[in-house]
Design a protein that fits this description.
Elements lengths: L1 E6 L2 H11 L6 E6 L9 E2 L8 H10 L4 E4 L3 H4 L2 H7 L3 E2 L8 H4 L1 H11 L6 E4 L2 H8 L6 E5 L8 E4 L2 H13 L10 E5 L4 E10 L3 E9 L2 E3 L3 E4 L4 E4 L6 H11 L1 H9 L5 E11 L2 E8 L6 H5 L7 H9 L14 E9 L15 H4 L5 E5 L2 E3 L5 E3 L3 E9 L2 H14 L5 E2 L6 H8 L1
Parallel strand pairs: 1-2, 1-4, 2-3, 4-5
Antiparallel strand pairs: 6-9, 7-8, 7-9, 10-11, 10-15, 11-14, 12-13, 14-17, 15-16, 17-21, 17-22, 18-21, 19-20
Helix pairs in contact: 6-10, 7-8
The structure holds adenosine monophosphate and glycine (GLY).
Length: 428
Amino acid sequence: MRVLLVGSGGREHALAMALAHSPNLSALYIAPGNPGTAQYGTNISHIKADNVAGLIEFAKQNQIDLVIPGPEAPLVAGLTDACQKIGIACAGPTQAAAQLEGSKKFTKSVCDAAHIPTAQWQAFTDSKAAIDYLHQQSLPIVIKADGLAAGKGVIIATTMQEAEETIKTMLDGSAFGNAGKLLVIEEFLTGEEVSLFAFCDGENAVLIGAAQDHKRIGDGDTGPNTGGMGAISPPPFFDRNAQEKALDITVRPMLREMAKRGTPFRGIIFAGLMLTDKGPYLIEYNVRFGDPEAEVLLPRLKSDLLTIFKNLCQGKLSQSKIEFSDQAGVCVIMAAQGYPGKPKTGGLISRIKEAEKLTDLKVFHAGTKINADNQLCAAGGRVLCISAFASTLEEAQKKAYQGVAAIQWKDGIWRKDIGNRALRKKVN
Ligand code: AMP
Ligand code: GLY
C-alpha cells in the first residue's frame, strides 16, 4: 500500500516507525514530516498538515491508497471527507465526527444522550446568563472555550471574580477568537487523570492502552500548560482490565450514539478521563493519538499497524489481531529553552545514536531540522522525545533519563519528575 502520513511531531515519527514494519507498505510519504520520519519514508516538507487541498492533490497525483492523519487540524478541516470524495481511504473521522474534539458543547451533548458520566455543564453565548449560572455553582469551577484553542481554552477558576473575568474575556472580548464565542461552564472533578486510547471502526472499539501525560512545564506540575512534557504507560493504578471497563463506560456508548446520528466515528479515539471515586468520568475526547502518548504506546504494538488502519477504514476491526507487549514505558520530552513561550531554535543536537545504544530506548524527533551545514538542530518548542521501555515503570523511568543524559544539546530543558506521580500513587 502507498501511504500518506500527515504531521510533523514525535507522534508522527512513532507512527512512521510502526508503519515501516508492515510487509504491506510499498511507499510512505510524510507531509510535512521531520528528520525522524525521513528515516522511514519521503518527507513532503512543503505541504503543511492543515493544507487539506495540498494533501488531496498530492494523494491524487501519487496514487495514495491510505491517508493517516496525525494531528486534529486536518480532520476538523474535513480531510477525511475530501479523501472520501476522491475514493481514497483515510484513517480518521469525518468532519462531522471530528466535532468530538472540535466542540466541547457537542461532546457534552453526546455524553448526555449516551449516558456517559461527565461533569455537570451548561453552554452559553451570553455573558449575563453565564454569570447568573455561575453564581449558583460552587468553586472551583471550570470554564471552557467551545472550539479548538491550542490547549489554552480551559480555565479552572478558584474565585468568583476570576470566573466572571474569564467569562467576560471569552464572550465579550476577542482573546479566544471564534473558539471562545461559545463557552461551557462545568463542575470541577477530582481524581487521577488518565488518557485512554482505542482504534474505532464506527462500530467496534479495540483497546490500545492508557497513558498519563504531564502537561505543565515545571516539575511538580507547576507553571504553564504545554502540549505535554512526558508520559508514562500504563498508569500502574489503571490496568488493562480497568481500561476495558472504562472503554465500556466512556467510548462504546459514544460509538453507538454517533452511529445513530448517521456520523459514525472511525479513527483513533483519545478519551481524557478523570478516575473519580464514582468511576471514570469523561473530560474530553480527542480524535487522534496524543503526543507524547503515542511515543509510549506505539513502540509496544506487536501487530501490523497498517493492516489495523486498513481494517479500521473498512469497518472490519473485529478481524484485526491487535497485540501489545506488556512492558512499561516512560517518555521524556526535551524542549527548547523558552518553551512554551518563544523557543530558542538553531542549537545543535548530537549523540542520539549513543542514547539509542540503551536497549528498548528510542529517540523520536519532533521540532528538529537539518541545517545548511547538514547538522541536526532544534527548530521548535518540543524538540525530542526519549521513550524507554522495561519490565517495570521504575526501570523504564531510569532508562529514559539515562537516554536524556546521553544527548548533547545545550538549549534543552526537560522535566526531571516524569513518572514520579504514578510511582508515588502505586506505593500508596
Ligand atoms: P480539556 O481541554 O477539556 O482536556 O481540559 C484541559 C485540562 O483541564 C484537563 O486535562 C484537566 O486537567 C482539566 N479539566 C478539564 N475539565 C475539568 C473538570 N471538569 N474538572 C477538573 N479538571 C478539568
Ligand atoms: N498530550 C496531549 C495531547 O496530545 O493532546
